[in-house]
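Input set for joint prediction.
Command: fold jointly, output tokens.
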Amino acid sequence: MAVQNPLVIGAIPPIEIGIYQEPSAFFPSSVERDSRQQKLLVEAFYLHYDQNEIYRKYCRAIGYGLRAAEMNPYTIPVVPSTIFKRLSVRTMSKEATVKRCISSGTQGSISVIERDNTTLERFLGSVQNTSDNVYGVEDAVILNLGPGVEEAKDIWFSYVMSVSDVLYPTLDYVANGVFKLAQLVDDIKMFKARYQDVFLIGAPPMFMEFYHYLDDNHIKLDCGAQLFIVTGGGWKKHESESINRTAFNDLTESLFPGIDRSRIRDNFNMVELNTVIPECECGSKHLPVWVDAFVYDLDTFDRVGKANQPGLLCFLDASPTSYPGFIMTGDLGQISYIDNCPCGKSGKCIEVIRRVNTIESRGCALKIERDYL
Amino acid sequence: MKTSYFQIPGPQGHIWCAYDQAEEQGQESPLIIIAPGYEKTARHSIALALYLVLNGFHVLRFDASNCTGLSSGEIENFTLSSLTRDIETVVDYASKFLSGSHLISVVSLSLSSRCLVKYLARHPDAYTKLLACLSIVGVCDVEYTSSQILGANYFADIFAGQRFGVRKFLAYNINWDNFAFDAKDYGYLSFDTAIADAKRVSIPYFISIMAEQDEWNLSRQQQTFFSYVPSAHKEQTIIEGASHQIWKNPRSAEIALVYCVKYLRNLYTHPSLEIIRPDMTDIIEANRHERRFIMESTLKQYYRSLEVTA
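tokens >
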């Protein structure tokens, strides 16, 4: 029989091959960063420079153009995350927005990020890739120590939880402002018999409330190697009650005897960042091939890409199409490893140290906003 | 999209189904059945269903027996024969009760494509019920695909007498020995059996969507297999850069979905040429709705089993 060539009906863009199909996307080698990452960042810059009036105006004001991005994509200008609190920094038309995402607003005003289909899909892709290839999970249930999307509406953290529901069954344990602690205990016991992995996901203060409940009621939950404890979102207005990571892990271990400490993880994300930054088993937050990070030195305002130099954390995220993912955060952090994480996998890792206070902080951000935007 | 859930009795117990219709649609829309891939459930096809429903079709999705999901049996007992029996049961039911005056079309994914072809080969009169088969990343060489998944070919050892019992096959544990003997005894295992079945397909339309980076299929085999399908109208297509797990990449999925919708609209002479695409938020919402239903059903089953144990 005659064999004919099939008809090509479409092609997948390189960034989406990375996000959705590459098991090693969160562990890119230096060669991959030098080649693929740079191309992805330049392509993303083209898009936002071309189609985002505010971003283009800002780039032109500082004398930055396409050629500069092509020469060195790691110089692509970042915008302060605070800009999203007062301006609509859209790359696409308003009609393309499918989800208006807002920050929790614990520091006063809220950021608004408008996401189109592609941006939202790519975010979900980063979650899927994390679960498949960083956590190595295949069959899991997620128990969310927070409200569902119906109550939290557009708040990003809750929305992220609701999109995880596409990947794994997700149950919410806060309803009408009540944390259903007893139900959570019962469900952990039940689900560990039905799923390969049971994820408890929530902000650290929610875990602390749950841990107090377990402690007060003398409950210890032996889940063996099935449990994943995943925090996200930080302490925010509960900063005064915060405990350090080692103390948190010790407490977790005392309440969940038998848990492997490598299964206690913290993921980094913020409403302005379109990629979840997961921790490996060593507790390092690995950047995928489509994201780079650097810090701004708080004294000199210079970009620093070297490891172990604290500063204002910035991201170059090539994944969003509806807004520029080139963001200066309000977090003090540093590059912790470059291809030398103890887990043995390659890639750049970040460490988030703490939120910066308003005075030290926002020097860079305020200067950019005042002068250029 | 409104979805009703029900169970069809079958030779292996019951098959759990989700029947999707547009809110405002009449009864006469053509029906598309979606046969799930191995370890996938009806819920995994929700995006495809949403696309089809928004564009004028009714959709019947189902959970396979002896698989994950709410149909009878445990995944440990999964075999290709079992999935083929499900396809037969669902097609018979749908043609009696749901299809109206239209012939049905079936979308199959990965391993369920091999089962659909087996069903078509065994039913030379299938054209009286089915109009088209749309096979997405369809498997045609079960031995090759299984070996790719497992990292080695264990079939020779099993047929030589070695027993592996229940072991991981992708995310879940199945009985390797039963799976292997079923595939061999009922003519699924080798590429030759696929060719033999392809020659006996009697329905008029046959579409194949391949993925260029398919790690579990050999494209040359897929093309050869396709060349033997005698359907009068057939088309083989490919998505560049896509992998076998097409649903994990929304862009691959969208390309496949739009192609399927366009093809089916043309086939059933739909009055409108415009393709309506659901938003990601619609898919998330439909998924959430179905997750809740499934979780409640699962918990009910669990508590019932506790009562029985007590």
